[in-house]
Every structure is written in C-alpha cells, then in structure tokens.
Amino acid sequence: MTKPSVLIVGGGVFGTSTAYHLSLQGYNEVTVLDRFDVPSKDSAATDLNKVVRADYPNPLYTKLGLEAMEVWKDPNSIFKNMYRESGWIMAAHDMTRKWLESARNVAEAAGRKGVKYMTAQEMKETWPALTGEFPSWTNLWSPAAGWVPSGQAVLRMANAARANGVKYTCGDAGYVRKLIYEGTTCKGVITTDGAKHYADLVLLASGANTATLVEAKEEAEAQCSVICVIKLEPHEVEKYRDIPIIDDFEQGIIFPPDENGFIKLCSCRTLTNYQNKKVPGASILHSLGDYPEDGCPKEIEDEMREFIREMIPELADRPFISTKLCWDALAGDLNFRICPYPERKNLYVATIGSNHGFKFLPVIGKYVVNMLEGKLGAEWQDLWKWKYGKVPADFQDPHPWPQRDLAQLTGWEGRNALGGGKLPWTWSRL
C-alpha cells in the first residue's frame, strides 16, 4: 500500500525526528520546510548543549526519557559518542521543593539507583571546583544524566533523514507563511517565494512560531530562555571539567565546559514576547534570523551573575563572550502537543516542546508517526492532546518564577553586535 505524502513545517527536534522515523517506515515522499537550513536558527535545539535525563514527576516522561537514553548511549546509533554523562543536580527553593520531591519519588519507584539528596557541603566535597555557599538550596543528585551538543545532534539526524530520501527545503522556498485549505481540509502550504506545496498530510512542528500559522494563543506561548557563555582559559578547563550540570529551578542552569572550553549558562526565568507586531494577543518567536544582534537583557545578566556567585564565585564576573535569546513554545501544563489539530482534516501538530523536548530527539518521531497512523497509545494521546489552554488543578510548575515580557527589560537590543571585543554567537561543532 502506498504511503501518504507528508509536509513537515519546521526542521527542529520534533520535525527532524519525525522525518527520520517516517523514512524508516517506508514513507518516500517526506519534505521538511524551514526558513533556515539545519540546524534551524529558529529551533530551540540550535544551541551549544542540552540536558539529557529521565527525572520527572510524571512516570510517562521518565519512561520516554529512559527509552531515549538507550539510543543516546548506543555505540551503534547515529548519535555515537555525543552523550556525556556528567550527572545532574536539581536544586529547589521555596517555590519548587514539591516538584523536586515528586521527581525523587518517581525515581525511587522506578528503581533508579543513586538518586539522592545532597547538602551543600557534600557537593563541595565531591566537586571541589564548587566553592560557593549555595544559600537555601535543596539539592537532588541524579548520576544517570548528562548533556549532548544539541545543534550537532539535530544536524546528524537530519543528514541521516536526507540519506534516506527526505527532502529539506530552506530559504524563502521553505519559509511557510500560510496554510492552504479546501473547506476544513488542509491541502498544503504557501511559502514566502509564493510557491504552493501540497501533501496528503501536513504536520506543524513549528515550535515558537506555531501561533503565526494556526490559532494557538491559549495553547502555545513562545517563551525565551536566555543563554550566556563564558570562555575558560586553557589552563582552567581541567579544573571545571568534571562539574555536574546544575539546574536551579528558580535561577538557571550551568553546564560543564565543552571541548572548546565554553561554559553555557541558561536562565530559568523565561520571557514572553507579547509586544510583537505579527499576532496580536499572542507571544511568538523573536527570530534570530530577523534580529541577529539581540541578546541578553541587563536584568537577566545581573541575575545570572548572582546565580554563578552562589556556586562558583570566581567565575561570577567573567565576561560573557556571547548571549542568545533561545525560544520555544510552552503549554500551560508543559506537555507536548502531538495530535490532530482541532476541527481540521489532514492537519496535525508535533510541537510545543515546553523547554524539555530535546532529550527525546532519538525517539519522539516514532511516537509522532504512530499518531499520524492512528496507533498512538491512549495514555500518550491523553498526555499530548490539544487542551485549549486548560491546566490541571494539581499541576506543578518546575520553573514558577513570575513571568516577564521581553519589552519590559533593557539592554538586549543589539547586545551581540560585533565590536567591543564581543564574538558572534556560535554553537559547538564536533
């Protein structure tokens, strides 16, 4: 039986993983459309690195994380040698201790070894490079976690999909502006160059841009995690090489240095973009393609330096060689949306990574294919269905810092302009 043709709008994590898994299932007419070549500048995964872990309060995500971890670690997979197991410290304060305890309980129920609470003194004894005081921190250590150079991982998977016959189209020819309908049936898309692209199935994997293509104001809120990078001196790399990832749910994340001596920091105090000029009432992507010189707001820089000071005070005043506004779409319940788009035929979504989608890159596309074929398990359907912005009463937000909009902050416009000793943003190529 002939497989249907598929158009995928967006070449980030969900789009690329889906394209790859479709190619494994005998689909020979798969096209990925994106404004940018892989790894797309608009994808949250186009970054130095991302956390890979299985610690969740929801056992379904723990199960999915463990499945993905097997592929990351598999020496015969396309991701060979990309995963670095550094371990992961989750840190909580007054607003997030309940989430931390829930994650510990799920780890215990799953029989995961080594997950335990650590005092600040125990952390400093285990990793002498951590010299800060960690004031009022509650710390949960998970050894079976690490990181992956995320932009490079997406590129590897996209290249594997291309080798299997998937077509990638970028530039104006891949920049989707509008969907084509006949009644309530989606027939294809129109790109910036005016071309019309038709397919049997249209899948939106458009992340923080989703609300520009379909009604999604209540369901997909674009939020920005600000990235800042410190460059260590060559003689310092060994000192910090073995530090774990530290994720303070109310402040930020710090990663061990990569092979270039870059230490990445990521603010957990996300920003919205409601002051955009494209979609009134929606928070959407502030694209790096349109605003390549914009970067870290002054207020976030001050907060990030205080975060570093609590862990490694000697690095707190180091210059940031570059910064980046990293956008993803978030749902109110922080679940993905992998489902048919409501009240439309032949239109599907695999989007809203909610700032935790990358780690599932090796396997999430398999679940999307199951959804397209009507084979997705009931528990996953319920988890990833379109919810019209509804959030369960017992929802626990791991990053509950009060929301701010980009327009409320200062110093971010032109922050990364060349000159003054600053370097342009880049991501690690292995």
Characterize the structure shown:
There is one protein chain. The chain is an alpha/beta fold. The model is unreliable at 420-430 (pLDDT under 50). Helices cover 23% and strands 23% of the residues. The chain has a single domain (6-408), classed as FAD/NAD(P)-binding domain, CATH 3.50.50. It is globular and about 65 Å long. Belongs to the MSOX/MTOX family. GO terms for molecular function: flavin adenine dinucleotide binding; saccharopine oxidase activity; sarcosine oxidase activity.
Quick summary:
The chain is of the alpha/beta class and 430 residues long. 23% of the residues lie in helices and 23% in strands.
Please give a handful of descriptors for the protein shown.
single chain; 430 residues; alpha/beta; FAD/NAD(P)-binding domain; ten-stranded mixed sheet; six-stranded mixed sheet; 9 helices; 21 strands; 23% strand; disordered C terminus; FAD/NAD-bd_sf; sarcosine oxidase activity; saccharopine oxidase activity; MTOX
